[in-house]
Amino acid sequence: MKVGVVTFPGSNCDYDAYSAIKVLGAEVEFLWHHSADLNGCDLIILPGGFSYGDYLRSGAIARFSPIMGAVMDFARSGGYVIGICNGFQILLESGLLPGALLRNSHLRFSCKYVHIRVENDRNVFTSGCRTGQVLKIPIAHKDGNYYNFDGDIEELKKNAQIIFRYCDPDGNITDRANPNGSVYNIAGIANHEGNILGMMPHPERAVEAILGSADGLRIFESIQNSIGQGVEVEKA
Amino acid sequence: MDNKKAVVYVRLKEGVLDPQGLTIHKAILNMGYDEVAAVRSGRFFELELAADGNKLKERVDDICRKLLSNPVIENFSVEYQE
User: Fold this and answer.
1) CB atoms B19 and A57 under 8 Å
2) In chain A, where do the E strands start and end?
3) Residue range A170-191: average pLDDT?
4) Widest CA span of chain A, in angstroms?
C-alpha cells in the first residue's frame, strides 16, 4: 500500500499522518496542494490543520486547490480517501461526503482524548475492529459539530454510513460524551460506496501506546489489510 | 462604464443551529436589553466588479453558490450597487 498525505498551506497534522503510516510500516509520501498528481497512491489522507487559515469556512478554500481536483476524481472512481479533522471539513465542502461541520456548540476549541464507538465494521476503514468496539482517540477542533438534516441522517443510518459515534469509555452514547454538539453523536461517516471516510478525531495521533493510545492504528491497519487482500482500487 | 459593486449576504438556513448567534443573544440579555428575542449571525462580502455584461449576475451567483456560501447550511442574497 502506498499512502499520499496532502499538504495544504496551513496543514499541521501532515507530519503526524506521515509518521503514523511509517509506524504502520507502509510506503508514504507527501503530496503538495499545487500538484494535480497523486503519484499512484492507493490511499490519500487529507490531514488536519487550518488549510488556508480556515478563512471563509474551514475547508472551503482548500476544496478548490489543484490537488483536490485529482483527489475528487480518484475518490469518485473508488479510490480510498480519509479526511481527518480539517480533512473531513474539506471532504464535506467538496461534496464527497454529505453534511456540514458547524462551530462547536460550546464555541471553544477542544483538545482532549475522547472515546468513539465503531458503528459498522463491514467497511474497509474498520474491518479490523468489531462493531461496538470503543476506541480512544484525541480530538482537537473548534468546528467539529456535525450537522445534517433529519432526512439525511436517516439516510446515513439506513445505509450504515455512520462509522464512529462519540461515547463514554464503556461505549454508551450519551450527551455528556458528545464533545461538540454533533447530531446523533456523529464522529465519522463514510460515503455510500464506502471508499471515503471523514472523521473529526485524530487516529494519526494515537498510533503508539507510549503517546497515550494506539487505537488509531486499527483504522490504518484495516485499510492496509483490505488493500492487501486485493480489493479492486483504481489507481490514481 | 462605472464599476458595480455586489454586496453578498450569507445567512444560516432556518433551523440550522447558530451557536454564535445564541451566545451573542445571551450577552445582549445579560446587558439588560430584554427586548431582543433572538439573534442570528451571518457574513457579508463586497465584490467590486471590473466588468459588466448580461452574464454578470449569473457569474456572481455561481461564486456565491460555489465558494461564499455552503448550500448545505446557508442561503445567500446579493444586492447590486452602482
Assistant:
1) no
2) 2-7, 27-32, 43-46, 80-84, 100-102, 110-118, 134-141, 145-147, 162-167, 186-190, 196-199
3) 98
4) 44
Which pLDDT band, with edges at 50, 70 and 90, does B44 fall under?
very high
pTM confidence score:
0.91
Which residue in A104, A147, A181 is closest to B73 by CB distance?
A147
Neighboring chain B residues of A99 at a CB cutoff of 8 Å: 72
Burial of A193 (C-beta count, 10 Å sphere; 0-12/13-18/19+): exposed
A31 closest CA partner among A65, A7, A50? A7
What dotted CATH number matches A2-228? Answer: 3.40.50.880
d(CA A49, CA A222): 24
Residue A163 has pLDDT above 90, yes or no: yes
Q: Which domain holds residue B71?
A: 4-81
Minimal C-alpha gap between B34 and chain A (Å): 23
Asked if B17 reaches chain A (Cβ–Cβ under 8 Å), the answer is yes
The CA R_g of chain A, rounded to the nearest whole Å, is 16
Domain boundaries, chain A: 2-228
Nearest to B72 among A100, A106, A181 (CB): A100
Cα–Cα distance for residue pair A133/A118, rounded to 1 Å = 5
pLDDT, tens digit, 9 for 90 and up, residues B3-29: 689 999 999 999 888 888 998 999 999
Looking at the structure of chain B, the number of domains it has is: 1
Summarize pLDDT for A56-94 with one digit per residue, the tens.
999 999 999 999 999 999 999 999 999 999 999 999 999
